[in-house]
Write a structure and sequence with these properties.
With 383 residues, the chain is of the alpha+beta class. It folds into two domains: 197 residues, Jelly Rolls, CATH 2.60.120; 111 residues, Homeodomain-like (Arc Repressor Mutant, subunit A), CATH 1.10.10. It is built from 14 helices and twelve strands. The radius of gyration is 28 Å and the shape is globular.
Length: 383
């Protein structure tokens, strides 16, 4: 009997070993615990701002300072700043796109002609309302936004509006992100996106916002491409047109030209001649490309003056005004002052005085300074 049991045990062991060998013909899948142990830290570090921890009388001024790179804001006329302004803003930088979530009480906002002229930020913004409503006016046309819909507008143009107490998501996309599909004038600025395609976009972005803390680095480019494709599809439906291939060359050339200008902005050799050689096109063709911008020389000078304005507006910059002018290509202080005043409506010294007289209304400790500020992210987007 014992011999029989021994033989039975041997047979069972042999059978188990055989089945084990059979299973090892297939790639072994990692166990769940193995996957848990191979934890990869999240790729995105959110930038958070809140007025909740500030005294009520300081809350609105802190919010006004935080968003000043994009818009100027005001509280309703019948409301006092001492009553408080509970607002919060969280942003994620995906590289080719910024996503921001904000909750703000009712207020009015404006991107004025002066701010537009003095800012290098000209991105597209897609605003998705989760609660509340907003009304935005541009060129005399008012567009109302509400939950389930979205509005696209460019920060490269002045606008103004007002909003009720609202929670929203904003997508910030570089100015030239649609260059392969549209010429710039074909996108209807300050337009309401609606319909089934917009519903899909809204649902995807809302779901994406919940997943942002878990995304891996290698997933970010694909997410950005998906969002850009969905927005492009919504815009095509809005304009009722198909992509036009013969526009691609001109749009691509303009983008290459702008990139070349930006990386050579302070070079003494930057000129229509060197630019046309770098692009491999004639000067006549180059002038045609930049005709909507007032000409290639005007475009170069404006980018240089914007760079000078940023330097003068930086309280930490101690360069002499004449040195800043020389850095951006002006051989004399008089020529620099004249061109600067013509472009912005005030002198370089006035710009510096305005910057030096601005005292922060609250300590910067009420927002996280990791990886720069939200304004820094906006300036770097698309570069």
């Amino acid at each position: 009997m014992n011999d029989f049991k021994d033989r039975e045990s041997e047979a069972s062991a042999t059978e188990n070993a055989s089945s084990g060998l059979e299973r090892r013909r297939w790639p072994r899948q990692p166990a769940a615990q193995d996957r848990l142990n191979s934890f990869e830290p999240p790729a995105l570090k959110p930038l958070h701002f809140s007025t909740f921890q500030l005294p009520p009388e300081d809350q609105f001024d802190a919010w006004k300072e935080y968003v000043s790179g994009v818009v100027d804001v005001r509280i309703p006329d019948q409301q006092s700043t001492s009553a408080g302004f509970l607002a919060e803003h969280t942003a994620w930088n995906l590289g080719g796109m910024l996503i921001a979530k904000q909750r703000v009480p009712g207020h009015s906002y404006a991107r004025s002609e002066t701010r537009h002229r003095t800012s290098s930020i000209d991105h597209w913004v897609i605003a998705i309302m989760r609660s509340g409503r907003s009304w935005t006016e541009m060129n005399g046309a008012v567009v109302e936004n509400e939950p389930g819909k979205a509005v696209i507008r460019s920060l490269g143009f002045p606008f103004r509006g007002r909003a009720t107490d609202a929670e929203s998501l904003q997508l910030y996309l570089p100015r030239d992100v649609f260059a392969e599909t549209f010429s710039g004038h074909n996108i209807r600025n300050n337009s309401l996106l609606s319909g089934n395609l917009t519903s899909l976009l809204v649902e995807y972005v809302v779901a994406l916002e919940g997943l942002l803390p878990t995304l891996r680095t290698d997933e970010l480019p694909g997410v950005v491409r998906i969002v850009q494709s969905m927005v492009t599809t919504c815009l095509l439906a809005l304009t009722g047109q198909e992509p036009v291939s013969n526009r691609l060359l001109g749009a691509a050339l303009i983008e290459r030209a702008r990139h070349h200008i930006q990386i050579n902005l302070y070079s003494e050799d930057l000129s229509p001649e060197t630019l046309s050689r770098a692009l491999g096109i004639s000067r006549t063709h180059l002038y045609q490309l930049f005709e909507p911008s007032g000409g290639v020389l005007h475009y170069i000078q404006k980018r240089r003056l914007l760079s000078a304005h940023a330097a003068l507006s930086d309280p930490a910059n101690n360069q002499q005004i004449s040195d800043i002018g020389q850095t951006v290509g002006f051989s004399s202080a008089a020529n620099f002052s004249r061109a600067f005043s013509k472009e912005f409506g005030y002198s370089p010294s006035a710009a510096r005085s305005a910057a030096s007289s601005q005292v922060p209304v609250a300590s910067s400790s009420h927002w996280d300074k990791q990886e720069g500020t939200f304004g820094d992210w906006l300036k770097a987007l698309g570069t």
